[in-house]
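Q: Please design a sequence for this.
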């Protein structure tokens, strides 16, 4: 009887030991999500401030930053909080980059006009609205 009890405890401990390492792995440490985590890292205040300067120079003419109301293009206040664009796509760094680089219906694309770090900083700023 005691041997069965010891075997049962050993089986439970082995099951727990097999589960614990999977629980300790963070999403950024898993394959595939480490790349996304790197692109969506926490922005510094300086990066956000540079993004705001880019916004003021390139985006403010068509988009409100303090309202979700339409100006020429949609207002961007709360864009990240809303979580989805009007077309249903998820608001994330990748999709924001796509909109900025390629443009949209009445929006010009800025891929050749903005440098990579300017786009990254602009995305950081847009996520604070």
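A: Design:
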């Amino acid at each position: 009887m005691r041997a069965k009890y010891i075997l049962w405890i050993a089986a439970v401990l082995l099951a727990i030991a097999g589960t614990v390492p999977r629980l300790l792995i963070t999403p950024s440490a898993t394959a595939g999500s480490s790349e996304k985590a790197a692109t969506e890292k926490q922005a510094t205040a300086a990066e956000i401030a540079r993004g705001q300067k880019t916004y003021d120079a390139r985006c403010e003419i068509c988009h409100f930053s303090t309202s979700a109301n339409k100006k020429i293009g949609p207002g961007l206040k709360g864009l990240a909080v809303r979580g989805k664009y009007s077309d249903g796509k998820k608001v994330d760094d990748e999709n924001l980059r796509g909109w900025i680089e390629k443009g949209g219906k009445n929006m010009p694309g800025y891929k050749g006009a903005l440098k990579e770090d300017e786009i990254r900083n602009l995305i950081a700023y847009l996520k604070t609205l």
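Q: Thanks. Anything notable?
A: The radius of gyration is 23 Å. Residues 2-24 form the longest helix (23 residues).
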